[in-house]
Inverse folding.
């Protein structure tokens, strides 16, 4: 087992798609825009809710009603993000096992900070997920490594002995940019073929399988993907 487990939230620990789609369509309808199907919303998520709405709203950021529609979404979602959202089968048991074995656990999400905090507190509490970081103005979203670095800082640990778990290409890139291996889950918003096409190397079909993934040591196939602390700092400076 690894020493530290950094999880994505939507599509990894929590099934949130129906509530996201409902708030998206509420905001769209409230502003006279065509609604989106569940499959469309599934493809839109992964880069934060602002990007979700940019993809859902006709003409995106260029739409004069974008700001209002986006705010309508946020307000509706904060009131309705627990309507149907729940942990995937096996997630609670998996987190309890990690806690039992003394593993360090955090959540990093591109969901806005208030919703990330509320959902993690409601479903997991501080005992199972002591650190939960969402989107906020002073930190770059995934796939930049910033939220992972901040999670590791709050856990008082390093990327050594840590693993990142997520359901999308954004998560694969986040893990790579953070210098750690990635476990890709198959119950989330992206399918197996898509994940493999985007560089997934370790896939699991059930949460319990996460506990069985052995810690990656300095083998050739992964060594080339590791990023040193200096490289991460340089990447941050170049992306500003």
């Amino acid at each position: 087992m690894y020493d530290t487990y950094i999880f994505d939230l939507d599509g990894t620990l929590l099934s949130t798609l129906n509530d996201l789609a409902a708030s998206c369509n509420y905001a769209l309808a409230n502003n006279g825009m065509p609604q989106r199907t569940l499959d469309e919303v599934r493809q839109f998520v992964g880069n934060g809710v602002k990007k979700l709405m940019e993809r859902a709203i006709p003409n995106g950021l260029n739409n004069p009603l974008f700001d209002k529609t986006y705010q309508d979404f946020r307000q509706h979602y904060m009131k309705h993000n627990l309507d149907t959202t729940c942990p995937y089968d096996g997630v609670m048991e998996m987190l309890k096992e990690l806690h039992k074995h003394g593993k360090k656990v955090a959540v990093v999400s591109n969901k806005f900070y208030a919703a990330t905090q509320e959902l993690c507190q409601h479903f997991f509490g501080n005992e199972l997920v002591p650190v939960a970081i969402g989107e906020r103005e002073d930190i770059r979203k995934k796939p930049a490594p910033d939220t992972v670095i901040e999670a590791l800082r709050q856990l008082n640990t390093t990327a050594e002995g840590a693993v990142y778990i997520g359901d999308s290409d954004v998560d694969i890139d986040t893990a790579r940019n953070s210098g750690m291996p990635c476990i890709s889950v198959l119950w989330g918003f992206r399918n197996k073929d898509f994940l493999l096409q985007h560089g997934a190397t370790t896939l699991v079909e059930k949460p319990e399988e996460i506990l069985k993934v052995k810690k990656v040591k300095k083998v050739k196939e992964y060594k080339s993907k590791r990023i040193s602390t200096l490289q991460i700092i340089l990447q941050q400076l170049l992306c500003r």
Observations:
- The first strand starts at residue 4 and ends at 7.
- Residues 44 and 52 are 5 Å apart (CA to CA).
- The chain has twelve helices and eight strands.
